[in-house]
Amino acid sequence: MITLSTADINLWIAALLWPLTRILGLIAAAPLFGNGSVPVTVKVALGVLLALIIAPTVPALPGADPLSLAGLLILLQEALVGLAMGFSMRIVFAAVEMAGEIGSLTMGLGFATFFDPNTQGRSSAISQFLALMATMAFLATNTHLVLLSVLVESFSSLPVSAQPLYGGGFKQLADWGGKIFSTGVQLSLPIVAALLITNVALGILTRAAPALNLFGIGFPITLGVGLLVLAMSLPYLATPLQQLFLDGIERTRLMPRTWSERASLPLRPAPRADR
What are the backbone dihedrals phi and psi of residue 110, each rounded to the nearest 5 degrees, phi first? Predict the structure, then answer.
């Protein structure tokens, strides 16, 4: 006769619940998986399926009760790890969207905005277009599969533990967020440079012929030049996008290692003041 104790049931629940929490955290924040157009049922089903596959390979788990305070703290910590890993990859797409926002403002398309289901806000038309291009490149390069492999690897580099996380990992995530502005400006430089030359030429033309209506001819010209430069630069976006994906994957892989390396260091006793 098979008998099950409460400890065995708690161990089985924890073996599935804690990895599932990290997986769902990554799915909620990562690009493509966490898209607002994907139903919540599909996200949860994907997370449970991945947890059933990954759970047997997870290293030894702490012996805390999942319903105790220690178990709830571990649950919260795993959710933070998954969200941080997914957000690291989401920053790459935010940089591409930032480039679209800069290009739209320079072209004069700042008024052409659409509802973005990811951020629950509004974004420009060029930003949405570049985000769709980045999503197709994300799928074409199988980066979504690499991201899942990094998630599986994180359970070995940062096992499920009751030890609190080191705050330096979140500082690295904040530093990585600066990539949004630097990369966004770099990707939008062709449009900004072309429109700067166009605006200078329009200014010289207005000075030479004051009778011309600058507002009547300026907007169609800047819009046409911006779209033309965007179309010409699209074939050359493959290399920087691929490099961005590689940087995002590497940052996602290094974050759990940073927490695990810091957690493995012995705690130094506080120095005592001489009396």
Answer: -65, -25
Angstrom distance (rounded) from CA 96 to CA 136: 13
What tokens appear for 163 in the block? 């030890």
Tokens 């008024």 belong to which residue? 111
CB 252 within 8 A of CB 81: no
Reported for 69-74, long-range contacts at CB under 8 A and 24+ positions apart, including other chains, are 70/162, 71/14, 73/162, 74/18, 74/160, 74/161, 74/162
What is the structure's pLDDT at 95? Answer: 92
Contact between 66 and 10 (Cβ < 8 Å): yes
pTM reported for the whole predicted model: 0.81
Alpha-carbon torsion (187, 193, 199, 201), positive or negative: negative
- If one compares 137 and 35, the residue with the highest pLDDT of the two is 137
Report the length, in residues, of the chain.
Answer: 275
Q: Sorting pLDDT into bands at 50, 70 and 90, what band is 62?
A: confident
Alpha helices in the chain (DSSP H): 6-29, 40-54, 69-107, 125-140, 143-157, 168-176, 179-208, 214-233, 238-264
Q: How many Cβ atoms are within 10 Å of 51's Cβ, its own excluded?
A: 20
> Could you tell me the residue ranges of all domains in the chain?
6-261
83-97, 98-112, 132-146: segment of lowest average pLDDT: 98-112
Determine the Cα–Cα distance for residues 222 and 108; give it in Å rounded to an integer: 8
Cβ count within 10 A of residue 240: 15
